[in-house]
Amino acid sequence: MRQFLRALNPLAALRRQVSRWMQARLSLSDTLLLTQRNVYILPTGAGWMLALTLLVLLLASINFQLNLGYLLTFLLAGSAVAGMHICHGTLRGLTLHLQPPEPQFLGQGAALTVQLANERRSPRRAVALAVHGSGHWAWTDVPAQGNAQVQIAFSPSQRGLHPVPLLTAETRYPLGTFRVWALWRPAAQVLVYPAPEPGAPPLPPGEPRSGGTGSAPSHGRTEFDGVRAYRRGDPMKLVVWKKAAQAFASGNGTLIARDAQQPHRHELWLDHAHTGLGDLETRLSRLTAWVLQADRLGLDYGLRLPGKEIAMGHGAAQRRRCLEALALC
Amino acid sequence: MNLRQTLAALPRDARDTLFMLCVIAWVIAPLVRELPVWTSVAVALLLLLRGTLAWRARPLPGRWTMHLMMLCAVAGTLLTHRTIVGRDPGLTLVILLLALKTLEARAQRDAMVIFFLAFFSMLSNFFYSQSLATAAAMLLGLLGLLTALVNAHQPVGRPPLVQSLRTASTMALLGTPVMVALFMFFPRMAPLWGVPNDTMAGRTGLSGQMKVGNIAELALDDRIAFRLRFDDAGYRPPQSVLYFRGPVLTSFDGREWLADPVREDEDEARRRFTLPAQLQVRGPALRYEITLEPSFRPWLMVLEATAEPPALGTRRPYMMQDLQWMVRQPINELQRYRAVSHPDFTHGPLEAVPALRTFTTLPQGMNPRTLALAAQWRADPQLAQGGTMALVNAALQRLRTGGYTYTLEPGLYGEHTADEFWFDRKQGFCEHIASAFVVLMRAAGVPARIVTGYQGGELNPVDGYWTVRQSDAHAWAEVWVQGQGWVRVDPTGAVSPGRVGQFQRLQAPQGVLGNAMGTVLSPNAAQRLRAVWEAANNRWNQWVLNYTQERQYDLLRQLGFDSPDWQDLAAVIAGLIVASALGGAAWSLWERLQHDPWLRLLALARARLARAGLDLPEHTPPRTLAAQALAHFGPQAQAVADWLLRLEHLRYAPSPTDPRATLRQLRRDMRQIRWPVRQSPTP
Predict the structure, then answer these.
(1) How far apart are CA B514 and CA A241, in angstroms?
(2) pTM of the prediction?
(3) Which of A163, B33, B188, B407 registers the highest number of CB atoms within 10 A of its CB?
(4) B349 — contact with chain A (CB < 8 Å)?
(5) What's the complex ipTM?
(6) Which of residues 76-105 of A touch B (CB under 8 A)?
(7) How many CB atoms lie within 10 A of CB B337?
(8) Is residue A147 domain-shared with residue A252, that is, in the same domain?
(9) Residues A92 and A189 grouped into a single domain
(10) What is the pLDDT of residues A111-159, one digit of tens each?
């Protein structure tokens, strides 16, 4: 009901319009120098309260003919005006620079790192940054002619390639009577991988190598293309101990052994069709978990997604390739 | 661990709270004298409680406790003042609220409420005192509050309070020009509603009546009644000149002297013409200026006798038939006025008129022995022959030789005050002496009355002002003499020549501090210090407290306004605001120009290349610019590329030469090298 009413409020609609318009006219940039033109200032509730206080003080001075009261009122007013300029000066001239954001998994609170550079000879205090509208402020003081770094909490709600959200820099220093803020739309984009499925099942068995007898190993090392459950009589060196430890930890107690009997004829394909799940997102989530597992085990693996296939490979590059494909699928 | 270390080890919250409590205590401490006792005690306890909770890191009291205490505060205020509306109950409530609110500082908003209540408390100090000392104390308080406020808006780490104090002082310093401008030009106006009630009247000066014992109280009061400066700075008046005339008291009920009781019912016009003043002045005139402290009474203090109305701006003083100068409204603020007086004067009817009979009436059945003495004198042929002056001289002679003494502590007088003075105690203060003298004169058939006012004064050698204190309050007598009118007789001078005539007064007992000062410093040095302090106070009074509408208009006249009014003041303020806005704009422009000259040069180069058709993003470094220029324009851009590399070199390579000189050279070269031009599209 309340939201319904809020939706009806013409002022709210107008405000949305205005804020959309203001956001649209911001240019995209990873470095932003705050100047007179992009720093805004408005009194806060406390500011209006101070104005009311000043009015009452003035009335009392008039009514009781207190010249000292006038002095107090005007000194307080003068200090508030000076405070307003100090407040605006805290942001004006500050340079914000967004470090290229690291890719991150969905659901893991990630951070955007922003560098604040201060050229002036006095420090800037109590500068706060946050994703616009999130209310999770990260505070910092920027030393004189120095830099400071803040981590802004950012939790995207979807996988994929997202533009870095609208950021706000704000300060109310020194009196809290004015809010000085700046809006900033960084140009950088942040890649969000799907969230890995917690407690995902073990990796799928290897597939027979397609179109080959496997007589010629491509690399000079033994390839273990598949894993399977431990069978009595398997040599100890075939047991995947890392996997085994995980299995014990998760409580199912089965040992995993490398499928050494068909060393060259099986490849580990992580296929979206073999996840045994219906929904695309949960499938991607499981595939992500598998990619991480396979990477941890140091295996060669490939990834099959609808309309996309990533060739067999291993290592950090393969992992990144696969995760990117999963994110952008 | 000593206190300092303990304080340094306190968590930030506790430290901030304790600091704020100290500032609040500082701000409201001077009000303790004015508040009801229970309020002061309650506020002190609440602040102590809050401090202890902060020190021990204990939780604040719950919501219900707070509600209960709030109710108690309101109930207490109601019980004490019978209302919660008005200045005094309002003050009580605000102070209690402030103390209670410190126990409730949960959210940022609560903290702000505390600050704003503290500002009110600060202002309420000025109801009671606007002295220089109060101003200094409250300036400290204001800085303290601003410091706490700044500190509250620094959420990072544990910033030292000194740092916040520095910011607060900067703000106050920057705010001072605003304060001065507004103070000078903000239009002063009359109170918007109500008139300040005279609850403070009991504190000051002469009261328009004289009960035996009144002026003796004043004698202990060292506060300043008014200051005077003669136009002729070198003028040293004899003491017989320094009589400042206040209320004249006519009617006596045996204990208390009152001003002419007829006055109250009669309209002013009649009052002024029943017994005309008939003032005639002669001889040289004294011109001077008086700065009168608020007396909450409608009379002006001037030297005897003043024939011309003192110049008092829009107020129009008028003279009573007994030579007293009045204004219509009580003096509630510091007033400054100029006056012209003639020490040589006569007044009152020269021949006997029926109205003089008022001045020989005495209450029935009182002071029988004094009446007997008067009858005896009247029967004395020698005295009867000498007329009025012989009787006066006989009384003065008796005072001089009869073993009468002057004392501030004559004890409590009984029913027959004059009898007791003349025959039993033989000691008293000026009011006893004057009262007994007038009773005796009236008993002898001589019209006589009591004049109250101030006598004497002290020259402050630092600034040349004469200071007249409440302790200079005095009562003397006037007798009517055939052919001379009213003649001043100061019987106190007969008892104690020191009281009148020299620059000595009875020393009122000094406070502990005064005694200490007297022992540490030599009396001279202490006196000198006091003179300096009072001169400073006087400056404060002249420049700040007495800055009234008239002086605003004077200032405007000096600035060239012909007939200034409040609109001109508003215009001046508006002009100042516009001027400061323009100044601010100019300054920010200058600041923008001052922005890193190297970056500006780079931006200029980029703009030139952009004009030639090579548009690169804003933060392209010079090396990239150079490479792109070479790629885009070919060899014709070689000079530009070299120049750009030199620019880079200046910034990033250690250079033995003065970077500013190099920059200047680069700027010159920039104008000389050939910049590529936009290739016109080939048709």
Answers:
(1) 92
(2) 0.67
(3) B188
(4) no
(5) 0.77
(6) 76-83, 85-86
(7) 21
(8) no
(9) yes
(10) 889 999 888 888 999 999 999 888 889 999 999 888 899 999 888 888 8
